[in-house]
Structure formats: structure tokens, C-alpha cells
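Supplementary Methods. Inverse-folding protocol.

Structures were first reduced to a C-alpha cell string of length 400. This string, shown here, constituted the complete conditioning input.
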């Protein structure tokens, strides 16, 4: 199929995956690469298929609606999400628990918590998914007071399960009387790590009564990277590279820890190891919706039809006048500071935002989704861009 230029679809993947239970590692890698390439198209494809259905006059049923809404959330296509919401109301498809939960999920992923809460408050019946989705959304956006308030109401009408406690602990609350599971311990030492108490987090991990796995050491390595703790970071990385030897993100984090310490020989060594194992760093991809169309940008990508028109340098100049100082630690390369700044300028989310600003009306909200974490420099830069150009910018990465 591949040599004939035929692209695989979801049906192809469903047929191939059972064969992976007994096949060489190179075949697993082949299928993994195929899946990662498909992942970039799947959401857009669902979006396109639904639009084609409407164009053909085919009415969507509740199952179709509940299937396409998650794609709207994943791509932050709130315009289409609202359009589908209007269709639901016109056709009288509520109350329907599955549809209402999908609406909450879509609105929260698009950063529209008020609209999600309206759907939630209007529900005749709520299950644990409804409550947990809304609580998690408040937790991800840092609204701790709303997390506690909603969790208290939840306890009045439904018994929380262990999953529901995870966003509560993330919001620095007490977990109650449930027997702690791995997710609860993970939230606790992740909290310690984020506030710089890396040694305390490490001590907490060592005292855990559960088997330590990738979900334990991963957050610790991230905390070591954030707070420049090389000693504990090396131990965390050692465990992770044994537990998940093909996970590129852990190699990258370890490389960045060495780079911050100026140990370029070790950085080069890690790159050599990754090359020898054929492990590739996942490229940063950002999506932005404009006029019911999804535009995709890669880090350093100038292939977009309107990329030549981008005036990113002009915007960076205005940002510097407003006090912007590039966080060059986010571009960990053994090069001069000026070249590091050039690496930061072409991060995919910056390209997507500037394109959206240039291509839409003033003060039109901009919603960006990224497949990786947003770096510290982009986090600061996006806030300044919003201040200078005045649109509301909602940025969703793989974690927040």
C-alpha cells in the first residue's frame, strides 16, 4: 500500500494492530510511525466528513454528534462546536447524557468554561464523567476555588470514584478517605516538584508503597529539568530509559538538563544514542482554526501558503519594547545567544498566532492547540502578544 502511494486509514490500523502481538521490533516501529502521521490528520478528517454530511443534507444522529464533538475539542474548533450545539437544540436532542458530556468536553478543551458550565448546570442527570470533566477543567485552568466548590456539590449527589480525586489533589485539596492509588501519589509529588521541592518529591517517591513505574519517574524528571536538579534528574532518567527506552521525550529532557549545565559533550552523546536507536524527537505541531478551516504549523515551518506574509519580526520588536526578554534556556543549543533567539521565534505556536492575528478581524479570539508542552519563552511571549494586539488567546498544550 505504502509503495503504491495509498494512505492508510483507521480501518487499516484496526486490521494491522492485532498482528503486532507477534512481530519483530522494526515492524512495531513501522506501525508506530504510520500511526503518528495519521494522528495529525484524524481530527481534521472527522471535521471534514461532518461538514460534507451537512452539505449533502444528511441529518446527524446522536451517535454521530457525540463522535464529532471530541474532534472539535481536540482542534479547538469552537465555531463548529457551537454550530453543532445549535443543531442539538434545534433538533431537541437533549437531554442525552452522552451528548451533554461531549459538549462539556468540547467547550472545556476550547477554553470556554462558562459555556461548559451552562451545559452542566442545565443537565437533568449527571454521571461521574460529567462531574469529573467539569472539575478537571477548572483544575487545568488553575481555578482551585471552583474545583473545591464543585467537588463538594458532587458529594451531595454522587459517590466520587478514585479518578475524580485526582484533580482535587492537583488543586491542593485533601483526597478524603479513599485508599490512595498511583494517580493520587503522582499528583502529590508532582505538586512538590512544581514548587521546587524536588528533594522532598524524591523522598516521597522513595517511601511510596506502590511499584514505581514511568508515571512516577516522568514528573520527577520534568521537575528536575524545571528546577535544574541534575543529581536527582540523572537517577530519574536512568529509571525512565530502562522503563521506556524508545520514549523520545525522556531523552530530550535529559539532554536539556545537561545543556543547561553547559555539558555539551553529554548532550552530543545523547543525540548519538537516539540516532543509533532510530529515536526521533516528536516535532512541535500547532493548529489554529480560521473561517471554519484548520491551519497547521510546524516549528520552523515556512511552507504555509501565507507564511511569507508573516511579520513576526515586527511583533517581536514591539514585544521587546514592552519588556520582553527571550528565555533562551528554552532553546538549548550550543550556539550564540542571538541564534538561540532565532530558534525561539519560529516555535509553531508563535507562527500560528501571528498568522491568526494577520488573517482575522481585530480582537477576534484565537485558539491554538499544540501536541507538546509550551516552552517557558512561548508562555511569556503569548501573554505579551495578547497584551499588545488585544485578542483573547487560548492556548491548549498536551497538559494544560
Amino acid at each position: 500500500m505504502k509503495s503504491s502511494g495509498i494512505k492508510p486509514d483507521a480501518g487499516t490500523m484496526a486490521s494491522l494492530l492485532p498482528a503486532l502481538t507477534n512481530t519483530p521490533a522494526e515492524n512495531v516501529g513501522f506501525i508506530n510511525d504510520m500511526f503518528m502521521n495519521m494522528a495529525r490528520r484524524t481530527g481534521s478528517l472527522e471535521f471534514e466528513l461532518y461538514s460534507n454530511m451537512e452539505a449533502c443534507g444528511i441529518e446527524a444522529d446522536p451517535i454521530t454528534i457525540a463522535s464529532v464533538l471530541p474532534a472539535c475539542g481536540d482542534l479547538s474548533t469552537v465555531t463548529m462546536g457551537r454550530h453543532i450545539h445549535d443543531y442539538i437544540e434545534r433538533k431537541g436532542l437533549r437531554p442525552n447524557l452522552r451528548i451533554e458530556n461531549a459538549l462539556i468536553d468540547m467547550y472545556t478543551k476550547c477554553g470556554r468554561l462558562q459555556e461548559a458550565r451552562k451545559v452542566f448546570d442545565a443537565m437533568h442527570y449527571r454521571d461521574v464523567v460529567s462531574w469529573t470533566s467539569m472539575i478537571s477543567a477548572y483544575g487545568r485552568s488553575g481555578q482551585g476555588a471552583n474545583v473545591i466548590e464543585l467537588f463538594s456539590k458532587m458529594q451531595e449527589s454522587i459517590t466520587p470514584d478514585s479518578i475524580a480525586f485526582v484533580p482535587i489533589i492537583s488543586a491542593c485539596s485533601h483526597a478524603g478517605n479513599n485508599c490512595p492509588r498511583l494517580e493520587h501519589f503522582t499528583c502529590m509529588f508532582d505538586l512538590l516538584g512544581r514548587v521546587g521541592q524536588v528533594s522532598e518529591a524524591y523522598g516521597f517517591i522513595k517511601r511510596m508503597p506502590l511499584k514505581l513505574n514511568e508515571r512516577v519517574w516522568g514528573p520527577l524528571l520534568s521537575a528536575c529539568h524545571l528546577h535544574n536538579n541534575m543529581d536527582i534528574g540523572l537517577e530519574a532518567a536512568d529509571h525512565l530509559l530502562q522503563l521506556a527506552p524508545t520514549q523520545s521525550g525522556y531523552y530530550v529532557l535529559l539532554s536539556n538538563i545537561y545543556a543547561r549545565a553547559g555539558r555539551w559533550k553529554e548532550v552530543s552523546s545523547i543525540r548519538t544514542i537516539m540516532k543509533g536507536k532510530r529515536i526521533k524527537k516528536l516535532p512541535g505541531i500547532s493548529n489554529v482554526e480560521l473561517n471554519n478551516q484548520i491551519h497547521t504549523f510546524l516549528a520552523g515551518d515556512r511552507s504555509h501558503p501565507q507564511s511569507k506574509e508573516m511579520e513576526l519580526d515586527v511583533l517581536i520588536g514591539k514585544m521587546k519594547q514592552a519588556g520582553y526578554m527571550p528565555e533562551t534556556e528554552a532553546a538549548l543549543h550550543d550556539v550564540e545567544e542571538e541564534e538561540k533567539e532565532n530558534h525561539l521565534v519560529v516555535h509553531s505556536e508563535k507562527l500560528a498566532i501571528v498568522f491568526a492575528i494577520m488573517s482575522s478581524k481585530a480582537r477576534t479570539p484565537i485558539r491554538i492547540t499544540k501536541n507538546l508542552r509550551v516552552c517557558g519563552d512561548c508562555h511569556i511571549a503569548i501573554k505579551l502578544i495578547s497584551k499588545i494586539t488585544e485578542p483573547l488567546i487560548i492556548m491548549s498544550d498536551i497538559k494544560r
